[in-house]
Amino acid sequence: MPDELTLLQQSITECRLCPRLVQFREEVAVTKRAAYRDWDYWGRPVPSMGSADARLLIVGLAPAAHGGNRTGRVFTGDRSGDFLFGTLHRFGFANKASSQTKDDGLQLLDAYITAGVHCVPPGNRPLPEEFRTCRRYLRLELTLLRHVRVVVALGRIAWQEIMRARKELNWPVPKPLPPFGHAATSCLDGTTVLICSYHPSQQNTSTGKLTHPMFDDVFRKARSIIGDNRG
């Protein structure tokens, strides 16, 4: 019988609650990018990735039009994914350093990746009501992921969504809220630490706003808190 997280991911992939996002993701899947004209685009909400016993939770913004919306897996098939999974692999949170297709054998190790919004938004900018609608899934994930020790927020918006979801669950949040900053760390409760990071978008990585050493700092902290790899 499928577990609760598996059922939740099935619900996510079937979601049609945001008409603007449904229309856009499906349009992208039809028009495609020239380099991927032979691809059968996913064109649906992109589910989260990872296992229920993960101690590291990573929260991003939304799928990329020709990344997750094409491949059907979060941070897969684009440069952001290469940047992220290269770092996760270096610190033992993934078995491979790249993420190209759903069938490439990539596995997360003691980690779980989700997003504030599971559909690709126009201009990479979900609307406030789209965040509110999709937050139901993040709230459920927070309650089902009972072993999380470290939460990494990829970008200011992901950081805001984590705080909003916790407030809606009546879970503690830092008071006053600490300012967002790369590698900034705060305690969410007695057992969970939040680490902020700039998002590994191509815009941030190509301009040097986020470098590999900077990203390594975030996951080095996470590894230090969590401890050695399981097994």
User: Mean pLDDT across all residues, rounded?
Assistant: 95
The CATH H-level superfamily is: Uracil-DNA glycosylase-like domain
The tally of strands reads 6
What is the overall number of helices?
8
How much of the sequence lies in strands comes to 5-15%
**CATH level-1 class:** Alpha Beta
**If strands are numbered along the chain, what order do they take across the biggest sheet?**
1-3-2-4-6-5
Net shape? globular
| CATH architecture annotation | 3-Layer(aba) Sandwich
Distance between the termini: 26 Å
Based on secondary structure, the structural category is: alpha/beta
CATH topology (fold) name:
Uracil-DNA Glycosylase, subunit E
Gyration radius (Cα, Å) is 17 Å
Biggest sheet record: 6 strands, mixed
Q: Spans of 5+ residues with little confidence (pLDDT < 50)?
A: none
Q: How many structural domains in the coordinates? A: 1
In percent, how helical is the residue content?
A: 25-40%
Structural summary, described in words:
The protein has one domain (4-226): Uracil-DNA glycosylase-like domain (Uracil-DNA Glycosylase, subunit E, 3-Layer(aba) Sandwich), CATH 3.40.470. 44% of the residues are buried. Helix 1 (4-13) packs antiparallel against helix 5, helix 4 packs across helix 8 and helix 5 (128-144) crosses helix 6 (156-168). The chain starts with a helix and ends in a 5-residue tail after the last helix. The protein has helices spanning 4-13, 19-31, 68-71, 79-90, 128-144, 156-168, 202-207, 212-226, and strands at 49-50, 56-60, 111-115, 150-154, 185-187, 193-197. It is 39% helix and 11% strand. The chain has 231 residues and is α/β, with parallel strands linked by helices. A 6-stranded mixed sheet has the order 1-3-2-4-6-5. The longest helix has 17 residues, at 128-144. It contains 8 helices and 6 strands. Strand 5 (185-187) and strand 6 form a beta hairpin.
